[in-house]
Automatic annotation (TrEMBL), chain B:
CDD domains per the UniProt record, alphabetical: S26_SPase_I
InterPro entries reported in the protein's UniProt record: LexA/Signal_pep-like_sf, Mito_IMP1_subunit, Pept_S26A_signal_pept_1, Peptidase_S26
EC number: 3.4.21.-
Cellular location(s): Mitochondrion inner membrane
Keywords assigned by UniProt, alphabetized: Hydrolase, Membrane, Mitochondrion, Mitochondrion inner membrane, Protease
Keyword Chaperone among record annotations: no
Organism: Taeniopygia guttata (Zebra finch)
Name by which UniProt lists this protein: Mitochondrial inner membrane protease subunit
């Protein structure tokens, strides 16, 4: 009897020990190093989700590479949405693929934090010509970036809400992991017609 | 001898990683101690005051008007600023300086908050850089740690 109790206590101790090691390490890894997410919407076609609703791309999001907010023009990045969380963004939102129990519990059930995935077009100091923004020419302020979806006209991006603060940067999308036939490394590619008119410094 | 030393080194590294991850989770999802500098929140928070900020309100969207929040600076993502929430999305705020004769008002856009320091004369805040996106909020300040000469330390809410 005492032996069974001792064994039970050992198992409970081992369980809690494993729990307190595995959960913080996993949560920190998913927050700081890399995570995986599914892309929804058509705003980044044809680079992401060319098949539309039938086949959503799954991308690898790299947090570690943007820990110093070091982005280049042409990178595909994910951002925390700066519009209302009560509004459902119809274009290019994505949901978590891997959900650790802690993360799931801490997300508000009413308003999951929206992330959007777009391409960086201009960095701070660049002057660019906008498509449908309230001002025709915009100089990107200090500490901000200008993002656009590849599918102009079907994209909710800086042409709608203006320059985005670098603090909202979430991760850089580096690879497409699924479907297997689209397995590739995403190269930073700036469309030539979207190059800035005048660069502050190279 | 070498195997012993290597074993100890790996164990040490393992503990460091484990406690580092626990610290990250605590700061990110619970809260932490912050040292504030600058005069923009006087007299509520003085220069070099030690405060405790909690992150639960941010994750559960419970930030209210009048809360003091820690926010990533909109113009410099590597630094944090500490201001009071004056308006939430949809609120009407006064955007002109106190010394202006004609007051101008605007509405805080969706997904943003309007921040102002308590020391209005010496504070660069939303009156300078506009409404701040909600996603930049890091935490809400709930306690200030005050040291008095009589006791070792008192917590002042």
């Amino acid at each position: 009897m005492a032996q069974a109790q001792g064994l039970g206590r050992r198992y409970i101790k081992a369980f809690f020990k494993g729990f307190f090691v595995a959960v913080p390490v996993t949560v920190t890894f998913l927050d700081r190093v890399a995570c995986v997410a599914r892309v929804e919407g058509a705003s980044m076609q044809p680079s992401l989700n060319p098949g539309g609703r039938e086949a959503s791309d799954v991308v690898l999001l790299n947090h570690w590479s943007i820990r110093n907010y070091d982005v280049q023009r042409g990178d595909i990045v994910s951002l925390v949405s700066s519009v209302s969380f009560w509004r459902s963004i119809p274009f290019a939102t994505y949901t978590w693929c891997l959900n650790v129990v802690c993360l799931f519990l801490l997300r508000s059930p009413r308003n999951p934090e929206q992330k959007i995935i777009k391409r960086v077009i201009a960095l701070e100091g660049d002057i660019i010509k906008t498509i449908g923004y309230k001002k025709k020419y915009v100089k990107v302020p200090h500490g901000h970036i200008w993002v656009e979806g590849d599918h102009h006209g079907h994209s909710f991006d800086s042409n709608a809400f203006g320059p985005v603060s670098l603090g909202l940067l979430h991760a850089r999308a580096t690879h497409i992991l699924w479907p297997p036939q689209r397995w590739q490394k995403l190269q930073p590619m700036l469309p030539p017609e979207r190059k800035p008119l005048h660069r502050e410094q190279e | 001898m070498l195997r012993n030393a290597l074993g100890k080194a790996f164990r040490f590294l393992g503990y460091t990683v484990q406690y580092g991850c626990i610290a990250h989770c605590a700061f990110e999802y619970l809260g932490g101690i912050v040292v504030c500098s600058g005069p923009s929140m006087e007299p509520t928070i003085q220069n070099s005051d030690i405060v405790f900020s909690e992150s639960l309100s941010r994750h559960f969207y419970c930030i209210r008007k009048g809360d003091i929040v820690i926010v990533k600076s909109p113009n410099d993502p590597k630094s944090n600023i500490c201001k009071r929430v004056i308006g939430l999305e949809g609120d009407k705020v006064c955007t002109s300086n106190p010394s202006d004769f004609l007051k101008s008002h605007s509405y805080v856009p969706k997904g943003h908050v309007w921040l102002e320091g308590d020391n209005l004369r010496n504070s660069t805040d939303s009156r300078c850089y506009g409404p701040v996106p909600y996603g930049l909020i890091r935490g809400r300040i709930c306690l200030k740690i005050v040291f008095s000469t009589k006791m070792n330390g008192t917590i002042f809410v």
